[in-house]
Amino acid sequence: MTVFSGLTLPVNAASAESLLAVDVSNLSEPVLCAEKDNVALMLSDAGQEQSVRSFAIQAVHPAYIGMIAVDSDAPDFTSCDMSQDPVFASGGPAQHTIYESPDLWITGFTFESFWRPASVPVHVQSDDGSGKVNTFEGLHMLQVWVRDGVRPEEVLVLYPPDGYWRARPLSYAQMRWTAYGSSFLVGPVQDKGRPVAVLESVTFDPKTRTFAMAFAAGGAGSLSMAQLDRQHFRMDVELQGVDTSVPFAALRSMYVTRTNADVSEIAWRAPHSAGWQESPVMAFQGGRAVELWAGRSVPSRHNLSAPDMIFGPFHGDGRFTR
Predict the structure, then answer these.
(1) Upper half-sphere CA count for residue 33 (Cβ side, 13 Å)
(2) What's the alpha-carbon Rg for the chain, to the nearest Å?
(3) Pairing between strand 122-125 and 199-205?
(4) Which of 5, 34, 253, 256 could form an S-S bond across to 227 if both were Cys, CB 3.0 to 4.6 Å?
(5) Do residues 140 and 90 make contact, with C-beta atoms less than 8 angstroms apart?
(6) Residue 12 above 90 pLDDT?
């Protein structure tokens, strides 16, 4: 069942002339803690005549999803020391419904504390044609829910203070839920103790199911919920005025061992290549790609049902402009 679709052209309809290759840098480092994002794949396009203006991000169920009998998303803090993490207290906990319709709603949360200040305003445009905009301050997390038949499902999360997103398709077949896994960043990536995309503001337009972002490092961008079903969730990204010679997007995930990871392998389609190349994620030396896949072919004890992530194709035009 497709909950919503048709808001954009299919990715495969992209013209070959507009495809761009991006540089993929691997800044991953080994750790013992399964709750630390130690996988870092950075995307940039230095040295190209055209800058990346648009690309797709997909969350796709792993290849072994149909073999799962008992799922798992429990945290594992073995060998973890979080005592040195920054802590910024807030007025939480609090929960707000910031948008609601029969088939889509967004819930905002304020926690008691977070590792960065909750200083990014979240604006929500009215869908009644009045032009009214509601503004919410002090939010640490947004949850996006859709209604699949009679059952609601959470499919997308954004943490405004650090710009981290997480996505998942609708639950597979008769499963009641699937886990979140890897996170991704959209916009200029900066090092603030860990990679972040610093946002100045976020605005949600319910008519197009689009999040518009203003970036502190300059420029703007948007992420649109384009296609969602029980196989995949495709989001279309556009960038305006962003310096893409430095990382404009990133994948953040975790890897301890091959069977204790949210991402254990990557595959990429190099420019003019006849096929895909593959590598264990920790051994990947970087390269150029018109598409990038990061996921697992072997089941993991950590977030067993979490989706694989796909970035690309990449384009030098505003392909998804509304």
Answers:
(1) 9
(2) 19
(3) parallel
(4) 5
(5) yes
(6) no
Which of 37 and 72 is assigned the larger pLDDT? Answer: 37
- What pLDDT is attached to residue 321? 54
Q: Return d(Cα 235, Cα 158) in angstroms, integer.
A: 13
Structure tokens at 245: 């010679």
Q: How far apart are CA 29 and CA 26, in angstroms?
A: 9
Please count the CA atoms within 13 angstroms of the CA of 205 that sit on its side-chain side: 13
Distance CA 143, CA 317 (A): 30
Please give the DSSP secondary-structure letter assigned to residue 132: -
Which of these, 93, 67, 126, lies nearest to 296 by C-alpha position? Answer: 67
Residue 60 Rama label (left phi>0; alpha psi -120 to 50; beta):
beta
Six token digits for residue 69? 């009998």
**pLDDT tens digits for range 89-102:** 887 799 999 999 99
Question: How many CB atoms are closer than 10 A to CB 67?
Answer: 8
pLDDT per residue over 202-241, tens digit each?
Answer: 999 999 999 999 999 999 999 999 999 999 999 999 999 9
Tell the burial category of 246 from Cβ atoms under 10 Å away from its Cβ (0-12, 13-18, 19+).
Answer: middle
Tokens of 302: 């950590």
- Decide if pLDDT at 287 tops 60: yes
Torsion of CA 157, 307, 60, 166, to 10 degrees: 20
N-to-C CA span, the chain: 25
Tokens 């640490």 correspond to 140
Report yes or no: 175 and 199 within 8 Å, Cβ to Cβ. no
> What residues contact residue 251 under an 8 Å CB cut-off, 6+ apart?
39, 40, 41, 182, 183, 184, 263, 292, 294, 309, 311
d(CA 245, CA 190): 13
**What pLDDT is stored for residue 8 in this prediction?**
31
